[in-house]
């Protein structure tokens, strides 16, 4: 009977360890999303989005700065979400800047 309780205790500990590792794996550093957002900002810079689409560009810049802040604080989930938003905002700025160039 004592061995049964001992086995159950070990199984509970192993289950808790597996659960903990699973949670840690879900909250990893969003390196790819941060890189994607920075590349999108660079692409927006290359077409002059800062001057041609200032509102969209500023929004992307602010979102990327917020993502950097969250990343430095260890809030990886929030950093990831902000980086994805920043990338989309930068792509929007780039698109608007390019449309303005074609309209001339």
Please summarize what this structure is:
This protein has 104 residues and is mainly alpha-helical. The protein is built from five helices and no strands.
What's the overall average pLDDT, rounded? 87
Helix/strand structural class = mainly alpha
Question: What is the radius of gyration computed over CA atoms, rounded to a whole number of angstroms?
Answer: 22 Å
Strand share of the residues? Answer: under 5%
Number of domains: 1
Main sheet record: none
As a percent range, the share of helical residues equals over 70%
Order of helices and strands: HHHHH
Low-pLDDT segments: none
Distance between the termini: 85 Å
Shape: rod-shaped
Give a quick set of tags describing it.
single chain, 104 residues, mainly alpha, 88% helix, 0% strand, rod-shaped
Description:
By secondary structure, the protein is mostly helical. It has one domain. The protein has helices at residues 2-26, 31-46, 49-52, 54-72, 76-102. α2 packs antiparallel against α4. The longest helix has 27 residues, at 76-102. The radius of gyration is 22 Å and the shape is rod-shaped. It starts with a helix and ends with a helix.
Please give the structural blueprint.
Layout: H1 2-26, H2 31-46, H3 49-52, H4 54-72, H5 76-102
Helix pairs in contact: 2-4, 2-5, 4-5
